[in-house]
Write a structure and sequence with these properties.
Blueprint lengths: L1 E7 L3 E8 L4 E8 L5 H19 L9 E5 L2 E2 L4 E4 L8 E2 L1 H8 L6 E5 H12 L6 E6 L3 E7 L2 E2 L31 H5 L1 H10 L7 H9 L3 H25 L3 E5 L6 H15 L8 E4 L6 H14 L5
The chain binds zinc ion (ZN).
The site of zinc ion has 6 residues, from loops.
Length: about 300
């Protein structure tokens, strides 16, 4: 069985044709602006068409297609909005189905971090109870409890980026709130902390490089971000009692540097019974959301998705 995967990022789109066990036969990556969502999905379908041709099949011959999107979704067919992509509400299948030439019941969508959690579950044997967290420009999260993705009443479960972690000197967050984890520990926030620490216009990646070279100011910036992450994980762990926390996104490369302060603050806030959590980088790597799209498709075809 061959399937199609579309990882629709905020700045770039990855597509692949894969086997049902997650072996990639062909892939494409391209920058596609999100502003015109019709053109965005049309181009995504076109890229997937190129992958199918390379894999020696027609698009319509794929068993199904999954798309992971930088947006809140209903896990079926509807995008509910995305501040980062500038999207409001719309349905996806009418945009994708004509371009793919396959039955509407074979096309599935999901929020990108939820999709990563589904991929961890399916392809990496992630366990039955875990939190998946993306730390990049923003911070996203997903929860798997007792072997199932938790979507929530309004499809926004797992938004760990908006757990409040700073009350004395809270910063404004893109969600309209103040003191959110995203406002204090995302890649963007690390860049801001770096500027305040006199590190010029160093971004999170540069801060990591400086910290690895022994720069004390960069190490302090990462320790600060790590404490906030540890605080948010303690709060969520007391509610969910996960076995593991998987961290993905660009900032995950610095996890070894962040971990001491994450753990210190985590142990301060987590119940003794909830402290035995493994916090590690996802093994899905850079293409976690692409495998996520594949997992969304396979779950959907198996009747789990909708
Ligand atoms: Zn927020």
């Amino acid at each position: 069985m061959l399937i199609g995967a579309i990882d629709g990022g905020g700045t770039k789109v990855l597509t692949a044709v894969m086997t049902g066990s997650g072996e990639v036969l062909a892939r494409r990556q391209r920058s596609i602006p999100t502003a015109d969502h019709r053109a965005y999905f049309a181009q995504g379908a076109e890229m997937l068409g190129e992958c199918a041709a390379e894999a020696g099949v027609r698009l319509a011959e794929l068993a199904g297609v999954g798309a992971s999107l930088p947006a809140m979704t209903d896990g079926r067919d509807r995008v509910l909005g995305s501040p980062s992509a500038g999207w409001g509400e719309f349905t996806v299948r009418p945009l994708l189905v004509p371009a793919l030439g396959m039955g509407t019941e074979r096309v599935f969508i999901e929020n990108d971090v939820n999709a990563c959690a589904l991929a961890e579950l399916r392809f990496a044997h992630g366990g039955d109870n875990f939190i998946w967290m993306t730390v990049s420009t923003g911070i996203g999260g997903a929860v798997v409890a007792d072997g199932r993705l938790v979507r929530g009443a309004g499809f926004c479960a797992g938004e760990i980026g908006h757990v409040k972690v700073e009350f004395a000197t809270p910063r404004a967050c893109g969600c309209g709130g103040c003191g959110c984890l995203e406002a204090h520990a995302s890649g963007t926030a690390i860049g801001r902390l770096a500027r305040a620490a006199g590190l010029g216009d160093a971004d999170a990646k540069r801060v990591e490089q400086l910290a690895r070279k022994g720069d004390p100011a960069a190490a302090t910036v990462l320790a600060q971000a790590g404490r906030y992450i540890g605080r948010a994980l303690a709060m969520t762990s007391n509610v969910l009692n996960p076995e593991r926390v998987y961290i993905g996104g660009g900032v995950a490369h610095a996890l070894d540097l962040l971990l001491p302060s994450i753990r210190e603050e985590f142990e301060r806030g987590a119940l003794p019974q909830c402290r035995n959590v493994v916090i590690e980088q996802t093994r899905l790597g850079y293409e976690a959301a692409l495998f996520g799209a594949a997992a969304v498709c396979l779950d959907g075809l198996a009747g789990k998705g909708c």
